[in-house]
Amino acid sequence: MTARSAPDRLLSVLAAFDHAHPALTLTDISRRAGLTLTTAHRLVTALTEWGALERDPSGAYHVGLRLWEIAALAPRGVALRQAALPYLEDLYEATHENVQLAVRDGSEVVYTEWLSGHSAVGVRIRVGARWPLHATGVGLVLLAHCPPDVQGAYCETPLQACTDHTLTDPARLRRVLAEVRRTGVAVSSRQVTEDALSVAAPVRGQDGAVVAAVSVVVPYADARVPVLVPAVRLAARGISRALGWTASPPAPWSSPASSRPSPDEPGTDCPGTNGPGTDCPG
User: Fold this and answer.
1) pLDDT value at position 270?
2) Mean pLDDT throughout 236-258?
């Protein structure tokens, strides 16, 4: 067996922490990082002295503020959030529903900001949470604007189902991605939870490349997709302009026609439309 390098062992200590395990004892860290207790103790001590980890009165370790300071320098993290926040707040004020900002990391979407109202539909999202690209509105937007080889490779992998309505058919996913590119928005109906629908749009950087996606998540039963689309588009364009992008006005949004799925196909029945599937590209 090849010996693990010092950087690999150090990073495995940090990787031991996640949303489900925000506080760990030294024994926990040793076990989750796959390190001996002696090695874990030495690395944890060094990280704590530097400020990457902090120890609370009970003896448990947490991620330290020094890491937050470093992470704040990431262009797709706090910097993007600061540019986007005024427009996310405007979108929230217009809808009083969950508003989200996300970026792509490999085959997953990572949420960098989330605004929620007291009466908004419950969502399984928090800042830093990860979800498969095909299962969310923001993920569909980000995947739709990936290079063709990236899309092809993703569609060839097993597509995880979160509900009975999640996109799991590669051919249908390819059609949906084409519609997202055509319409400029993604509508994800009941793909993560049975009671929610999201509308998402792309955020572009100065060079026009899609760097993030913004969405609003509403109760499925009360969703009015044609009303939500302009609001989400406006927020996305505002964030894009704040990042230095300049573009011509968008074309009017219309529901898919030529590639519209059957009304009986899972995940295509959107409320507030003229019929099942008529306003649901994703």
Assistant:
1) 44
2) 73
DSSP characters over 130-183:
EEEGGGSHHHHHHHHTS-HHHHHHHHTS----SSTTS---HHHHHHHHHHHHHH
Pairwise CA distance, residues 14 & 66, whole Å: 13
Contacts 24+ apart (CB under 8 A), 62-65: 62/17, 62/22, 62/23, 63/14, 63/17, 63/22
Q: Is 23 left (phi over 0), alpha (psi -120 to 50) or beta?
A: beta
Helix (H) or strand (E) holding 97: none
Q: Which of 123, 130, 183 is nearest to 18 (CA)?
A: 130
CB contact at 8 A, 165 and 191: yes
Average pLDDT, stretch 30-50? 95
Span 209-226, mean pLDDT? Answer: 89
CB 65 within 8 A of CB 54: yes
Split at pLDDT 50, 70, 90, the class of 235 is very high
CA distance 201 to 204: 10
- Token pair recorded at residue 189: 């109906």
**How high is the pLDDT of residue 251?**
56
Q: How far apart are CA 187 and CA 137, in angstroms?
A: 6
Instruction: Specify whether the CB–CB gap between 245 and 204 falls below 8 A.
Output: yes
Q: What is the pTM of this model?
A: 0.70
Q: Cα-atom radius of gyration of the chain, to the nearest Å?
A: 21
* 251-256: average pLDDT: 56
pLDDT computed for residue 248 by the predictor: 63
Cα–Cα distance measured from residue 15 to residue 12, given in angstroms and rounded to the nearest whole number: 5
Please give the single-letter amino acid code of residue 162: C
Distance, in Å, from the CA atom of 131 to the CA atom of 129, rounded to the nearest integer, reads 7
Q: Token pair of 106, please?
A: 């490999």
